[in-house]
């Protein structure tokens, strides 16, 4: 295992291949799991797993604090690895407190059963492991070894998915399954990352508490932005969870799954080149940066058009076959959500560019406006127009944010070019 993880004949090629594998496994894990759950308990467990996974992803985002792209593009090492790691320890503890407090509130008010509460906590804890691992892999990417990070994540994710499927098939109980996979994921995290990091002993510096919290303050806009984009990405589920029943929640998640996959898979298009983009930006090579942005945007557009075309002609029959549920009445919702998925991929891409250029403070405006609109109108739309209404509403908000961030990116590049010409 050590030889497999640490040795790569071609680092750049290996980084692309294994980051792609890890991204695909991360994107499709809920697809694989829901295929099995929908065959055994398509209503209760499918609905519980859906909302548990959505909450867990939001908690993971809180723990990550939006720092990964900032860390990977910190080419001058303004902050040491110890500073990044210690701040992640702070945010991890905070995310555990937030998760337990939220679930405790939902259980205390009667909104969650004991069974649902335990499942949400266990799946949330598993995602918190993912969040802490992220800062370790950020250091590897910063040192141009995304190949090692990709291998570790791919192996751990593959074993996690297989273990979840086996345990749920045997016990048909989400508590037992989530507890077992949490332990497996934790052990794999410790073992695989020990191998990955043993050859990267970073210089230990005396830690200044003020410097740790200075990092937190500088990246606070990224934290707000990443939390809000995760909220926006899952906002339809939260609105549906409070208005409709578990069956409708499950059906919506089945047609929403391709949207989630588009967003995650789009990351493998640009994740390996964040460090490269940061160097190009710092060197002032504007024309080269523009070419890279146009190329990556074109790849995301092609991926989105492919998904929309496939979804229109084959989406409903394939999803119905996969999940064993009749989804014939949800074709319009699926196509609209696929369009929204493409727009969300552009949102994530332009967020990365804006972060690398260190204009991350600007991100808050787009996400704050979008989130506020969803908080004010989301439940009302679900109540009045059902799944089709919330799908259209979601697509409009995400598209608006994508256009806003594209405009910000153009403005930032023009400003940089003008400064260089003076």
Task: Write up this protein.
The chain is mainly alpha-helical. The protein contains 16 helices and no strands. It has helices at residues 2-6, 11-40, 44-64, 68-72, 81-108, 114-142, 146-171, 174-197, 209-218, 220-243, 246-265, 267-270, 274-283, 286-323, 331-356, 363-421. The chain is globular and about 60 Å long. The model has no long low-confidence stretch (mean pLDDT 88).
Features:
mainly alpha; single chain; 422 residues; globular; 0% strand
Major sheet size, sense and barrel closure: none
Strand-and-helix sequence, N→C? Answer: HHHHHHHHHHHHHHHH
| Uncertain spans | none
Per DSSP E runs of 2 or more residues, the count of β-strands stands at: 0
Gap between N and C termini = 54 Å
Q: State the oligomer.
A: single chain
Output the structural class. mainly alpha
Helix percentage:
over 70%
Number of H/I helices: 16
Q: Beta fraction of the residues?
A: under 5%
Instruction: Round the Cα radius of gyration to an integer and report it.
Output: 21 Å
Mean residue pLDDT:
88
Looking at the structure, what is the overall shape? globular
Topology:
Blueprint: H1 2-6, H2 11-40, H3 44-64, H4 68-72, H5 81-108, H6 114-142, H7 146-171, H8 174-197, H9 209-218, H10 220-243, H11 246-265, H12 267-270, H13 274-283, H14 286-323, H15 331-356, H16 363-421
């Amino acid at each position: 295992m050590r030889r497999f993880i640490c040795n790569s004949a071609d680092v750049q090629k290996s980084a692309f291949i294994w980051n792609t594998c890890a991204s695909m496994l991360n994107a499709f894990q809920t697809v694989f799991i829901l295929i099995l759950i929908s065959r055994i308990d398509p209503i209760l467990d499918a609905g519980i797993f859906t909302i548990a996974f959505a909450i867990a992803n939001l908690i993971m985002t809180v723990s990550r604090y939006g720092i990964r792209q900032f860390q990977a593009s910190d080419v001058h090492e303004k902050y040491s690895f110890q500073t990044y790691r210690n701040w992640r320890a702070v945010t991890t503890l905070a995310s555990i407190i937030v998760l337990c407090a939220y679930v405790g509130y939902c259980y205390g008010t009667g909104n969650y059963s004991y069974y649902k509460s335990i499942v949400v906590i266990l799946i949330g804890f598993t995602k918190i492991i993912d969040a802490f691992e992220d800062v370790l892999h950020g250091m590897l990417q910063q040192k141009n070894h995304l190949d090692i990070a990709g291998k570790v994540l791919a192996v751990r994710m593959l074993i996690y998915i297989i273990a979840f499927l086996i345990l749920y098939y045997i016990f048909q109980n989400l508590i037992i399954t989530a507890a077992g996979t949490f332990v497996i994921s934790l052990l794999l995290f410790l073992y695989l990352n020990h191998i990955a990091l043993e050859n990267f002993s970073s210089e230990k510096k005396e830690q200044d508490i003020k410097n740790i919290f200075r990092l937190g303050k500088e990246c606070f806009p990224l934290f707000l932005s990443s939390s809000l984009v995760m909220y926006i990405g899952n906002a339809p589920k939260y609105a549906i969870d409070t208005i409709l029943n578990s069956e409708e929640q499950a059906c919506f998640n089945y047609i929403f799954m391709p949207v989630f996959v588009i967003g995650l898979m789009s990351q493998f298009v640009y994740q390996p080149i964040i460090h490269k983009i940061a160097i190009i930006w710092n060197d002032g090579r504007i024309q080269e940066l523009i070419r890279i942005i146009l190329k990556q945007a074109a790849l995301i557009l092609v991926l989105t058009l492919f998904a929309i075309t496939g979804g229109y002609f084959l989406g409903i029959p394939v999803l119905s076959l996969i999940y064993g549920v009749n989804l014939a009445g949800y074709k319009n919702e699926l196509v609209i959500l696929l369009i929204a998925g493409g727009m969300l991929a552009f949102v994530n891409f332009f967020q990365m560019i804006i972060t690398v250029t260190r204009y991350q403070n600007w991100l808050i405006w787009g996400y704050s406006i979008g989130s506020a609109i969803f908080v004010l109108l989301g439940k009302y739309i679900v109540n009045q127009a059902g799944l089709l209404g919330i799908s259209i509403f979601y697509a409009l908000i995400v598209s608006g944010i994508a256009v806003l961030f594209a405009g910000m990116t153009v403005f930032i590049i023009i400003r940089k070019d003008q400064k260089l010409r003076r």
